[in-house]
């Protein structure tokens, strides 16, 4: 078995339950702005938000276009008018409150630390929000480095993002690194773009668009790979 020294962990929907965090935040936001706060509307927002982030990862839009753009789209869907700048600001504050940890996250991080692996958190997003969520979740202590796309000046899946992580972490040899994440379009494609092995975290058994060295449906399966 190939010996890795360093693991790049994605955060949202790999270690942190972003779906739950997003749902709580959008429901609170809708209520705050006197908008229809139902599961259907929350689900519609999630789809809109995902489409904006995927467009950003493809390089079709700038990150700044996401923050108000997704709420403009949601308001169009609801046939309502509100101040999208205020909605975006309120949403960031509510999102930063969410730090639900996925099952097995603490156990696998503790396991890997005990075995001497260097662990890096690699995430797209807003630095202030992501750092707050990592700290309050209790995950911060496990990481040797935390790398948010906003600080890097590039985002997954760009090679330049992973170059930034390499430059600012101990391990310089790409052959000794494994990327673990749930996103085909950012984590797995990012590994391909940067020449780093990947492990696709796929609890919902989705069809893979890109090849990975490993695929797991539970974080604890990593104990069979990283011994």
Set down the secondary structure blueprint:
Blueprint: E1 6-10, H1 18-32, H2 39-58, H3 64-78, H4 84-95, H5 105-114, E2 118-123, H6 127-137, E3 145-148, H7 149-152, H8 159-167, E4 177-181, H9 184-194, E5 197-201, E6 214-216, H10 222-225
Parallel strand pairs: 1-2, 1-4, 2-3, 4-5, 5-6
Helix pairs in contact: 1-2, 1-4, 2-3, 3-4, 8-9
Features:
227 residues, alpha/beta, six-stranded parallel sheet, 6 strands, 49% helix
Descriptive notes:
The chain has helices spanning 18-32, 39-58, 64-78, 84-95, 105-114, 127-137, 149-152, 159-167, 184-194, 222-225; strands at 6-10, 118-123, 145-148, 177-181, 197-201, 214-216. The chain is α/β, with parallel strands linked by helices and 227 residues long. It is globular. The chain has a six-stranded parallel beta sheet with strand order 3-2-1-4-5-6, sandwiched between helices.
Question: How would you summarize this macromolecular structure in one to three sentences?
Answer:
With 227 residues, this protein is α/β, with parallel strands linked by helices. It has helices at residues 18-32, 39-58, 64-78, 84-95, 105-114, 127-137, 149-152, 159-167, 184-194, 222-225, and strands spanning 6-10, 118-123, 145-148, 177-181, 197-201, 214-216.
Topology pattern, helix = H, strand = E: EHHHHHEHEHHEHEEH
The helix content, as a percent range, equals 40-55%
Choose one word for the global shape: globular
What structural category characterises the helix and strand content? alpha/beta
Helix count from the secondary structure assignment: 10
What composes the largest sheet?
A: 6 strands, parallel
Fraction in beta strands: 5-15%
Distance between the termini: 9 Å
Low-confidence stretches: none
Strand arrangement, largest sheet?
3-2-1-4-5-6
Roughly what is the average pLDDT, rounded to an integer?
A: 94
The number of E-state strands comes to 6
* Rg over C-alpha atoms, rounded to the nearest angstrom: 18 Å
């Amino acid at each position: 078995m190939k010996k890795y020294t360093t693991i790049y962990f994605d955060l949202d929907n790999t270690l942190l339950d972003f779906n739950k965090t997003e749902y709580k935040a959008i429901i609170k936001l809708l209520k705050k702005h006197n908008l229809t706060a139902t599961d259907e509307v929350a689900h519609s927002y999630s789809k809109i938000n995902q489409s904006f982030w995927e467009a950003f990862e493809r390089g079709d839009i700038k990150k700044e276009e996401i923050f108000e753009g997704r709420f403009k789209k949601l308001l169009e869907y609801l046939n309502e008018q509100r101040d999208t700048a205020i909605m975006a600001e309120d949403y960031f504050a509510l999102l930063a409150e969410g730090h639900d940890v996925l099952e097995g996250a603490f156990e696998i991080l503790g396991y890997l630390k005990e075995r001497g692996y260097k662990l890096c958190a690699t995430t797209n997003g807003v630095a202030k929000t992501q750092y707050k969520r990592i700290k309050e979740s209790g995950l911060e202590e496990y990481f040797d480095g935390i790398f948010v796309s906003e600080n890097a000046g590039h985002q997954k899946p760009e090679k330049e993002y992973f170059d930034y992580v390499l430059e600012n972490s101990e391990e310089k040899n790409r052959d000794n690194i494994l990327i673990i994440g749930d996103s085909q379009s950012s984590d797995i494609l990012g590994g391909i773009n940067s020449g780093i092995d990947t492990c696709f975290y796929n609890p919902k058994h989705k069809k893979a668009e890109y090849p990975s060295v490993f695929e797991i449906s539970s974080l604890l399966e990593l104990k069979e790979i990283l011994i």
